[in-house]
Design brief:
By secondary structure, the chain is mostly helical. The chain has eight helices and four strands; from the N terminus they run αββαααβααααβ. A hairpin with a 2-residue loop joins strand 1 and strand 2. Helix 2 runs parallel beside helix 8 and helix 4 runs parallel beside helix 6.
């Protein structure tokens, strides 16, 4: 049995839902990545990268091409985010990444990019139904995930708000797609997101003197 076949084999059944190894392993790593993000640890990015690699198999088995595309995008953004946090400014006390609220200009770019991106991807999925059987919710999650990761890479508290909005659609879509473990994990994500939002919010209020300047060569 190949690794791909094993990942897409059934791990167990719970509440009449068939749980696949790829769905369980990929989302478990995703939970770890989210927890590491809450702790502002740079290891959140390699964890997200690995989660994306495993979840490609899960979405491929469910014949959700849009989900596969989203995970490929997650892999690429995770590599970029890793580089951003390596070069970013850090807290003087514990060396973790410094966080802040976005400026109104940054919020405008995020909202406009998410709206335009969802419209473009949703139109693509509608025109090519083989990419997704549920084009608009899939497009919403696809683009929302990208927006959340971009905000996280920049150390913006709004990252957590983006994940909240993704969760609202992600839970029912995962269950209806037969990815039950993804649905359960999205529920746990919600608790971690609320916890992480509170932590980042408080830390964004720290005096500037408690943060170290950006590392040499980092963008201002």
């Amino acid at each position: 049995m190949s690794t791909f076949d094993w990942l897409n084999s059934e791990a167990f059944t719970a509440f009449d839902q068939h749980i696949m190894w790829s769905d369980m392993v990929g989302n478990s790593i995703g939970l770890i990545a989210l927890a590491l993000g809450w702790r502002r640890s740079i290891w959140t990015w390699p964890a997200q990268f690995l989660s994306g690699v495993v979840l490609v198999a899960a979405y491929a088995s469910a014949q959700l091409s849009g989900g596969v595309g989203k995970q490929l995008l997650v892999i690429g953004v995770a590599a970029w985010g890793w580089r951003q946090w390596t070069r970013g400014s850090r807290n003087a006390q514990d060396g973790t990444i410094a966080v802040r609220f976005a400026t109104w200009k940054e919020r405008g770019f995020l909202l406009a990019g998410t709206a335009v991106g969802t419209l473009a991807v949703g139109t693509l999925f509608t025109a090519l139904p083989e990419l997704s059987w549920n084009p608009w919710p899939d497009a919403y999650i696809f683009v929302g995930t990208l927006a959340a990761m971009v905000a996280q890479a920049r150390g913006l508290v709004e990252f957590w708000f983006a994940w909240l909005l993704v969760d609202i659609v992600g839970v029912p879509l995962a269950f209806s797609s037969g990815l039950a473990f993804s649905g359960f994990v999205y529920v746990v994500y919600l608790a971690l997101v609320l916890w992480g939002l509170r932590d980042w919010w408080l830390r964004s209020r720290q005096p500037a003197g408690q943060q170290r300047p950006a590392l040499e060569g980092a963008p201002a």
